[in-house]
Design a protein that fits this description.
This protein has a two-stranded antiparallel ribbon with strand order 1-2. It is built from two helices and two strands. The protein is mainly α. The protein has one domain: Helix Hairpins, CATH 1.10.287. It is rod-shaped, with a radius of gyration of 26 Å.
Length: 121
């Protein structure tokens, strides 16, 4: 009876660790999606005589292309810093995922050894 309770406890532990891993795996995907959105600025593709507008409240106001480029460059600098921060977060979460996978593997091994011992008895 003791090995059955231990087996159930290990299976519960395995489920909890698998759920934790699943939650952790979603976060880097969301961060990568945000990263691709941040790089979607394409002012460099415009001709010099192209009209550029800036949204101020509910109104679009015509803006000089050079000024728009300067604003975008400042935003890109900010975005680059944010991306570095997000990359380090992704790396940390991936390391945490690997740790959870190792823990899951160890629990699975313990379950298998308990089941093998129970099968022999």
């Amino acid at each position: 009876m003791g090995s059955t309770a231990a087996l159930r406890e290990l299976q519960r532990e395995l489920e909890n660790k698998a759920n934790d891993l699943s939650k952790l795996q979603k976060v880097p995907r969301i961060i990568r999606l945000g990263r691709s959105i941040l790089f979607s600025l394409e002012l460099d593709l415009l001709n010099e005589d192209a009209n550029v507008y800036k949204l101020i409240g509910p109104v679009l106001v015509k803006q000089d292309l050079a000024e728009a480029n300067a604003n975008v460059r400042n935003r890109i600098d900010y975005i680059s810093d944010e991306l570095k921060r997000l990359d380090s977060t992704v790396q940390y979460l991936e390391e945490k995922q690997n740790s959870k996978k190792e823990a899951i593997f160890k629990v699975q091994q313990r379950i298998q050894s308990l089941q093998a011992g129970k099968g022999k008895a």
